Each structure stands twice: as structure tokens, then as C-alpha cells.
Amino acid sequence: MKTRYTYGGDEHIYVEVDDEMSLDAFFKSLSMSNAVRNANIKGVTEICPANASFQVRYDPDVIAPEEMMKKVQELEDKAEDAEKRLKTRIIEIPVYYQDPWTHETLMRFRERHQDPSGTDLDYAARINGFDTAEAFIEAHHSQPWFVSMVGFVAGLPFLYQLVEREKQLQVPKYLRPRTDTPKLTVGYGGCFSCVYSVRGAGGYQMFGVTPMPIFDPDQKQSYLSDFMVFFKPGDIVKWKPIDRAEYDRILAEVEADTYVPRIAEVDFDLEAFNADMPGTNAKLMEALNVV
Amino acid sequence: MSFKVIQPGLSTSIQDLGRPGYFHLGIPIGGAMDRFALRVANMLVGNPEGAAGLEVVFMGPQLVFEQDALIAVTGADLPAKIDGVTQEGWAAFEIKAGQTLSFDFLKSGARAYIAISGGIDTPPALESRSTYPIGALGGIEGRNVQAGDVIPVGETDMIEPGLSVPENLRRMPGRPAELRVLPGLYWHRLTAAAQEGFFRDDWTVALEADRMGYRFKGGKPLEFVEREQPFGAGADPSNIVDGCYSYGSIQVPGGLEPIVLHRDAVSGGGYFTLGAIISADMDLIGQLQPHTPVKFRKVDMAEALKARAARKKMLAAVRAHLG
């Protein structure tokens, strides 16, 4: 890992902690961006943490760019020593894989895809060495995921699977982005899963859909009463495969504003995870059983 | 006080100076694309500079006022008419209760700003009235203006009409439009030839040009420095591990067509960015029509800050002029 500092125009400083994805890079980015926030530097207007990088927006009329750069660089050592431990939560997100709506959409944009003859899931399964789409789906939901970034559009989470690098699923993005993606599509690009918080353009492969809203400016759902965006970096997600009947049942609850997702408070310790991934994951998922 | 929308125009939205503070959640700052024009329009009618007005794209709306008000239209040359009588741009004029504000065809520029004394008074969302349709925030029910909307305006003591801004204190892009770029971010991903070619080539504004971003075409494809793609980035050489995007940053998916992210930017993604348009030139982009020829000019940080200071000075000159 070699940290790279650069400017984004005259109003942003961009820090790439590593050019490849890892939880170590995520934790260092998060610690550094937290350190910048805690330093209360005059002139800073926004701090955006990402997967393995972060960005600081500042007002160059208040603080000179070189001065701002120096202050951010000085915080690197401090972040290095920070504990790689989080008090967080695990959330069970129901997913209706191979649903009719993403299927209709992926058929409409087939000419923009690497494999126009199949579906996104068939393609993802094949290039990751699985015999069937069902086996790939199993790999997608059997181990939990870590929210390593929130962004793109309103409240969209990027998720990184908590497994060894050899077991990471990797899928390219569409050759050319689609102009449409159904709301709440569970997507995949690079090594990241995502949930499209709103309907719109997108380049990630489409695997399924969740009935659970994760962004609502009207904040109708009880779990969105504090803020209109559900996810934050550090959240842990367990996908739960559901069928059409369960999808419809949950959707009815969502429409009645009575749906309550299963959420449990957990601790995540990167060192403990690195030492024993299956054991750590089993414990994380067990926490959901007592909800 | 309010006014009624008879015709909405092509894409008319309520905008102020935006909602900073939520970009880390994917909610962009938004607000007027040409902030200078909105500020000046507000000054002309005696509003605070950040009051909400209408951002009009290419084609003007038709509005009927239920009470007397002061109006100013700045930005693009889109001549305003009151009951058919043409009014000066960049100047304050009075509209009487029952009169209709309409517009002639666009002569130059892309976005006009309509300020109304008292300012538009729709309910703010996350401290701003700016419309962000993707997230259904601000504006009227989170959307652009539609026929039949009745838009509330704040109460105010009207100042005298007649203020105007002379031409030397207005700002519009030249032709070709020059956009200054500070190289940075993932600039190192391009070969030396591509770095040079980007600034040497002639570009034009593509049809995909909106509040989220402006696309450009016509230049040669950009070549990348060869490397083994980092884990998690994706196979295309223009891919990176998804990171944050700066406002004004220039991404070039596949090395083909540069896209400059603007006020309604997506907050992050998986494409490399070669640098960013300097803050002083962001307003100009909002005035570019499709097919406009564009040159990107390379600057360093010192020049970027000098240009920023010049913009501040110009705004101060307008304030001084209008007293």
C-alpha cells in the first residue's frame, strides 16, 4: 500500500490509499478521513470516504491548497496507528434473485453486454467458474458483505464480500452503461456488489432485486426515520434469498410502512477477521439469529 | 404571493446555491449551474444572492403572476417578454398582477436564470430548494416545473426597478469556449501522447449534456499507460477501484468521450479522471449548447487560484455597481 495524494481542481484533495481493493485499504481510508474530520480544519466543507480512497473538499479562499494538502498528509501516521475495529451492525437484506423486472431490463440492453446470448447471472457464473447460476447465487449470499462506500447516487452502497481474495467474485461492468436500472436492483461490478437506491442509469450487472427501500426522502419507513439514507460505511450485510411469494409479502409490509428489517449490533475487528474468516463470519451471522 | 406555470419550457427547475454536506452519501451539491448568473439576477431584484430562482434550459416558460413583482433574467440571451413586450436582459423590470412573462427564442448561451423579488419559497429539502430529480429532493415534489404548478414566492418590500448590469460585467463563454483544466487525480494513467492530445484536439459539446455532466466528442481516443489492472478495478484500462469524484472532474470511459461532472454529479464511480475543470470556469459550462466547439487549456494551481480571484473580483464589481 502506497498512499498517493493529488488535487481534484482547486477545491478538492484526493487521497488514494491503495490502487487495489482490500479491507486494509478501506480501514486506513476511513481512519484518515475520520482524522481529517476530527481535526476540524478551517475551510473543509465535505469529507467523502470511499473504498480505498477518500476526498476532501475545501474552500481555497479560506485555506491555501498546499496548506490543506500538508495538513491531510500529516494525519497519515496517526491513522496508521488507529485500531482497525468497528462497532457496527449486521443487516439481513432480502433478495429476489432472477426476478422478472431486472430480467426485462437486461434483455432490453443486451447489445451493451459482453454476452448478448445469455443473462447477467449466467455470464457471471460462467466467468467465475460456476456450473450454474444457482451455484453462483449461493456464493453471493452465503458469506456476508461489508459496506465500503456509499455514493454514486443517493445512498447507494458499494459492498465488498468478507472472503479470501481467491474466493472474491469478479465481474466486469457492462460494455456501455444502461440508461435504465430498476429501483432496488442488486448489482455487481468489479469486486463490488451494490443496491441501486433509485431508478436510473447503471453499468453493473443485474442479479436480482430487494423489496426493502434504502433511500426515501419522505422517510416513511421506520428504519429511515432518523435519516433518508439507510446505509453507512462499515455496515455489514447478509443477503437472504427469497422467492416471489416472500417478495410480495415484504412489499405489502413496505407499502403499509410496517416492514422492519432484521438488524443486530456487532463488533468487527479486522485482525480477528483476517486470522479466522469463516469463524468471524459465522459469529456475525449468528447475531442475526437472536433478533 | 405566487405565480402560475402555463408552459414549463423544456427543462425548467427551481435552483438556489445548492446543498453542501451530503456528497458523502451520494447527494450532490446541486444548485444553479451558472452561479454567477443566479447571484446577479437575485441582486437585480433586491434578493439575497442565494435566493431560489428558475433555471431555464434552451426554451423559456410562460408564467402568469398573481401579484406585482420585480423580475430579472440573466445568463443565456433568452429575451423575456411581458404581455408580448420585450424586456432587457441583465436588468430588473416590473411585472403587474395578471400579466404574463414569456420568452423569445434563445439567441446564445444555454441557461437563463429568472429571479423574482422575494425569491421562490417552496419547502427546502436538506436546507436547499434546489431540485435534484434523481433523489426526488427540492423543487416541487422533487421534480422540475410542470404546467399548472403554482409556485410560492416570499413576501418582500419591492425595490425600485431599473437596475442593470453593463456588458463588461456579464460573463459568457467565447467561441471556441475555453475551459481551463488542472491535471491531477488519475492523470498519470494517460500516456504522454494522450496527455498532449487531450489539450491539442478540438472537442465539441455532445448531446448528452445536462446538470449531472457534460459529454464532449471529436478528439482522438486517449491511450493508457499499460499495467496489470489492480484487484477490484475491472478489466478496462479506464477502470479504477470505485472512488470519489470531484466536482468538475473529467472522466473518459474507455478513453473515448470526456465527461465533465457538474452540479448534480454522481459522487463516485469506477472510471479514472484526468483532472478537473477549475472552479472559475464551472459556470461557463452551464452556458454551452450542444455542438459548441471547445478547447481544454492546461493550467497549474497558481493560475487556477488567480482565475478564481478574478471571478470573485468580478462579482464584487457587480455588487459595487448595483450598490
TrEMBL record, chain A:
Alphabetical list of InterPro entries matching this protein: CT_C_D (IPR003833), Cyclophilin-like_dom_sf (IPR029000), PxpB (IPR010016)
Coiled-coil residue spans: 65-92
Keywords, ordered alphabetically: ATP-binding, Coiled coil, Hydrolase, Nucleotide-binding
SUPFAM superfamilies the UniProt entry points to: Cyclophilin-like (SSF50891), PH0987 N-terminal domain-like (SSF160467)
MF annotations from Gene Ontology: ATP binding; hydrolase activity
SMART domains per record: AHS1 (SM00796)
Domain Carboxyltransferase: from-to ranges: 3-225
Pfam family, one: CT_C_D
Keyword presence, Lyase: no
PANTHER family per the UniProt record, alphabetical: 5-OXOPROLINASE SUBUNIT B (PTHR34698)
Name of protein: Carboxyltransferase domain-containing protein
Automatic annotation (TrEMBL), chain B:
Transcription is among the record's keywords: no
Record flagged with keyword Chloroplast: no
Keywords tagged on the record: ATP-binding, Hydrolase, Nucleotide-binding
Residues of the Carboxyltransferase domain: 24-314
Pfam family, one: CT_A_B
Single GO MF annotation: ATP binding
Protein name: Carboxyltransferase domain-containing protein
Native species: marine sediment metagenome
